[in-house]
Write a structure and sequence with these properties.
The chain is mainly α. Among the domains are: 23-98, Winged helix-like DNA-binding domain superfamily/Winged helix DNA-binding domain (Arc Repressor Mutant, subunit A, Orthogonal Bundle), CATH 1.10.10; 163-235, no CATH class; 248-272, no CATH class. It has 9 helices and 4 strands; from the N terminus they run ααααββαααααββ. Strand 1 and strand 2 (92-98) form a beta hairpin.
């Protein structure tokens, strides 16, 4: 008896608990041995069996990484499909299908029924011209003269204050460096700024209010203190106090007894 080279099959006919596997899977040229064995195991399971990566890793010695790679191989070659679906109750599940024949051909699209073209619309009749009565148009109005652009309102310039206010302003400006060391003014700066600062006193401002306005929130470093003080003195200059006009009291005319306004009793203008 001659020796048989290679494998020699000893087959026993199965009558129960068997799975038919095609040679296209068992002898696949591109699938790994793990993917072929995993596909064989999946096809032998009943419908509804759990084949998640975690369940398969608990069943076989291969780790989750190798099993996940084998499942991707089966998906690529058409033996497996995994699709995420949303259930009516809001739960998300993965529906897995195993195929004993690989899905190599995509389903052909259904033929599109031919749509009969609608008949072309009949051309619309040409419009009949309607005579338009002549209407006298109004004479165009003369163009308005160009509006003079508004110029920005200049800051209030103080008038010449009284000497007593000027002396008080000089004293305050000379003493500013004790309250704000970065404010250094020359004698020439104080002479030019004193009339504006004196107007603050004439308009009712107090020395503390003027000092606060000149030294609050100074920039660092302060390069030009005299320019900054001139800007604040001019822009923040308070308005002069409102003068209240006294109204003459009512008097009764000595001749006609009519009421009239006058500082002293006497006669009204008509009787005078």
């Amino acid at each position: 008896m001659s020796a048989v080279r290679g494998v020699e099959h000893v087959n026993t006919r199965h009558t129960s608990r068997f799975t038919v596997i095609g040679n296209h899977l068992a002898q696949h040229r591109e699938l790994s041995l793990l993917a072929i064995g995993l596909a064989t195991h999946i096809q032998s399971l009943p419908n509804g069996a759990r084949i998640t990566i975690k369940h398969l890793a608990e069943r076989f010695p291969e780790g989750e990484t190798r099993i996940a790679k084998a499942l991707r191989e089966l998906e690529t070659h058409g033996y497996l499909s995994r699709k995420t679906e949303h259930l009516p109750n809001g739960q998300i599940v993965t529906r897995t299908r195993s195929y004993n024949q690989p899905r190599t051909q995509k389903p052909s699209p259904a033929p599109v029924p031919a749509v009969q073209a609608a008949p072309a619309p009949e051309p619309a009749p040409e419009p009949v011209p309607v005579p338009v009565p002549e209407v006298a148009l109004p004479r165009p109005r003369e163009p308005h003269e160009p509006r003079t652009p508004c110029t920005p309102r200049a800051p209030r310039t103080p008038h010449e204050p009284r000497p007593k206010y000027t002396h008080a302003a000089i004293d305050l400006l000379s003493d500013l460096h004790h309250h704000a060391p970065q404010v250094t003014l020359s004698q020439n700066d104080i002479t030019h700024l004193a009339p504006i600062a004196a107007t603050w006193f004439e308009n009712g401002s107090t020395p503390s209010a003027l000092r606060q306005a000149l030294t609050a929130d100074l920039p660092h470093p302060l390069k030009y203190p005299a320019k900054l003080l001139r800007h604040r003195l001019t822009v923040l200059l308070p308005s002069p106090p409102t003068q209240v006009r006294l109204v003459d009291p009512l008097q009764n005319c000595d001749a006609c007894d009519r009421a009239f306004r006058a500082p002293t009793p006497g006669r009204c203008r008509e009787c005078a």
